[in-house]
Amino acid sequence: MKKTSVGGGLNPSDLITNQIAELEDWRGKLYARLRKLVLEASPGITEEWKWGTAVWTHKGLVCSAGVFKDHVKLNFFKGASLKDPKGLFNAGLDAKSTRAIDFGESDEIAASDLKDLIRAAVAHNLSAGAKKQPANP
Questions:
Q1: What DSSP line would sit under 15-34, residue for residue?
Q2: Which of 54, 95, 97, 118 has an alpha carbon 20 to 30 Å from 84's alpha carbon atom?
Q3: Alpha-carbon distance 103 to 114, whole Å?
Q4: At what angle do helices 12-22 and 26-41 cross, to 10 degrees?
């Protein structure tokens, strides 16, 4: 995992760790678990800090975390372009390009299925990048 520096001397991974630590309830534990799964799903993924929260990238935006009073949201930036055979997306279903998964306090995480979806998002970014590359003469 690569780390990109940000202002204040803290790198994105430190900022994410701090954000998780500040959540002393179930949301912090859930956020930490989601982070672990994202990082396990794609070893080449980079943690970044944008819009005041965790953003994971790999040749483009993959997903971000959002913490709310009653749920933790994992937002996939190109979710509308991804196949979701397990029906994990449960939020933002009408958005043009994004899709999200809202996790409540008692929700189970289908770790294997979530990792597959993260890998699909990374593969989508990689295939989009390959299409933009000029052909070798």
A1: HHHHHHHH--SHHHHHHHHH
A2: 54
A3: 12
A4: 150
pTM for this model (two decimals): 0.87
Burial 1-26 (b: 16+ CB within 10 A, else e): eeeeeeeeeebbbbbbbebbeeeeee
Residues 22 and 14 sit within 8 Å (Cβ to Cβ): no
Which residues are 74's β-sheet partners? 65, 101
Cα–Cα distance, 50 to 106 (Å, whole number): 28
Structural tokens at position 80: 């509308």
CATH architecture group of domain 2-130: Alpha-Beta Complex (3.90)
Which residues, other chains included, contact 14 with Cβ-Cβ below 8 Å and sequence gap of 6+? none
pLDDT digits (tens, 9 = 90+) for 72-108: 999 999 999 999 999 999 999 999 999 999 999 999 9
Amino acid 45 reads I
Supply angle C-alpha 10, 109, 116, rounded to 5: 80
- Report how far residue 108's alpha carbon sits from residue 115's, in angstroms, rounded to the nearest whole number: 14
